[in-house]
């Protein structure tokens, strides 16, 4: 197999083969299966960015890396290690491409030299049980709700009750949310390296989702559950973020990050408080790494120690 040319003709396959056969971390040990899945998703995101800008793995330069990081930083909370993880992966990838003569230079060298892990990662933001309960009450529809408020309550109900990501919500179809029968749930289709999953929806989310679906009962099953107001395409992240921020402000929650991520963290922490294991909660989130859940578990331990 000519793996060198494969990086140009089938980059995703070439990256997978490299990860499985050769790639190692800073400790010179092969990456775990979980890490390889994460790296595949990261590589896919980088490659999509390059293709969208007319570049390839053999031609991209520092300007493409800069534009990629600009895009990443608009979607990630301040203080996270996302940029560093991508910088190190890019450096590792480019060094390999230079070694096999796909590239003549490594444009990530100067970037990774100035990156460092934060001394203390900021704790994850979430709603404590009291605030969680208040928001659960906020999502309940009233008799005076207009269409916009019905939509907003349903969006928050699905994020808070299902623990799905903002991007997963944007792709959710009507048929994916089942509120009839003995076990209402949201089905999250396979996306990239993430396997499909089904999350049971708690009772507090049912009324809002039923009201929203009934208000659009004539829509096809495969139609988006939350289309954009004007053109029917997927709702954008700006509007989605505003919906969540307004809901959080309505219950008196103010924080540096008031994005859908807070609701996902709250969902996960609620599972841990109910007795679920890290493994079960990670699976419900559709993640392959326990890192997020472990950090949330630590907040519970710290809270107990402070009593």
CATH class of the largest domain: Mainly Alpha
CATH topology title of the largest domain? hpI Integrase, Chain A
Structural class: mainly alpha
- Identify the overall geometry: globular
Q: What is the domain tally?
A: 2
Question: What is the overall pLDDT average?
Answer: 85
Commentary on this structure:
There is one protein chain. By secondary structure, this protein is mainly alpha-helical. It has 2 domains: 110 residues, DNA polymerase, domain 1 (Orthogonal Bundle), CATH 1.10.150; 177 residues, Intergrase catalytic core (hpI Integrase, Chain A, Orthogonal Bundle), CATH 1.10.443.10. Strands 1-2-3 form a 3-stranded antiparallel sheet, with helices on one face. The longest helix is centred in the N-terminal third of the chain and has 20 residues. 28% of the residues are buried. The mean pLDDT is 85.
